[in-house]
Specification:
- With 286 residues, this protein is of the alpha/beta class.
- The chain has one domain.
- It contains 9 helices and 10 strands.
- It has a 7-stranded parallel sheet.
- The longest helix has 14 residues.
């Protein structure tokens, strides 16, 4: 993936891991899987293995090469807390975020239980870093609201919710301790509908709790035509970013050297990376 992104609430995407597996209804029409599977079997393409989970070592140091501060969506094509990603790999990704602290990172997961466990334990040093924002996906009450509780119980300094695709009214959701809420409807073929009152309810709760509210899109099969206006205006609120200058090229080069060679997969002895859970459901490493 490019260091640029079309995602409205980020400047760049960073994918040191690619691929994922479905865990809840929000995954049904996964845009990342749809994109990746188009290129399965294409020799030399970044997604030659489709949406199989895979470590991409050459991407690890990418944020250290970017000179200007960016809002970075971490693993837009995966889930950093996927159960099959070794802790060593997660630690390496987190270490880069701590080093390249002139960027702001958005880490989003549906595996909120593992997020809570790791931020409360091995990754506690990163939980309180104000330039790393930790978030969970919320698509409905059954699957999404327990994730919110896991996130709230974590020691994260900045917590956010990606309520996309919003599949039902979330009711009296508690936003205590939540800094930011992003809301969006599903887009593409077979997109499930989102009712305006569901969005208004979240907007009003954000207003009452002092939580930044960002309305991304109505979605649908023609999302560009549907737009992102809610009651006659756009909503682009975002939490404040920590103003940190980027170091010069020489210092960035030193930081890249400091993370060491990423040529082998964390927890693995080979140089080809790891990949698990192929499209046929099998477990493979290569």
């Amino acid at each position: 993936m490019s260091d640029r992104t079309a995602i409205e609430w980020a400047d760049a995407s960073w994918n040191p891991v690619r691929g994922c597996t479905k865990v809840s209804p929000g995954c049904a029409h996964c845009y990342a899987e749809t994109f990746a599977e188009r290129f399965r079997g294409v020799p030399g393409h970044p997604y030659e293995q489709g949406f199989d989970l895979r470590w991409i070592p050459e991407k690890l140091a990418e944020p250290l090469r970017w000179p200007g501060p960016r809002m970075v969506f971490v693993n837009s094509m995966s889930d950093l807390f996927h159960e099959d990603i070794p802790l060593d790999a997660i630690r390496r990704v987190v270490d880069v975020m701590l080093l390249a602290d002139w960027h702001t990172y958005q880490v989003l997961t549906k595996r909120s239980g593992r997020l809570l466990d790791l931020l409360s334990g091995p990754l506690r040093d990163a939980a309180g870093a104000g330039h790393i924002w930790w978030g969970v996906s919320v698509e409905n009450r059954r699957h999404g609201l327990p994730r919110v509780e896991h996130l709230r119980a974590s020691p994260a300094a900045v917590r956010f919710l990606s309520v996309e695709p919003l599949l039902e009214d979330l009711g009296p959701i508690d936003l205590a301790g939540i800094s930011w809420v992003i809301v969006g409807g599903e887009s593409g073929p077979g997109a499930r509908p989102m009712l305006p009152d569901w969005v208004r309810s979240l907007r009003d709760r954000c207003s009452s709790s002092g939580t930044a509210f960002f309305f991304k899109q109505w979605g649908g099969t023609r999302k560009a035509r549907a737009g992102r206006m809610l009651d006659g205006r756009t909503h682009d609120e975002i939490p404040p970013r920590l103003p940190r200058p980027a170091p010069d090229r020489s210092r960035r080069r030193e930081l890249i050297e400091a993370i060491g060679s990423p040529s082998s997969a964390p927890g693995e002895g080979d140089s080809g990376g790891f990949w698990v859970h192929g499209s046929g459901g099998s477990f493979r490493r290569g």
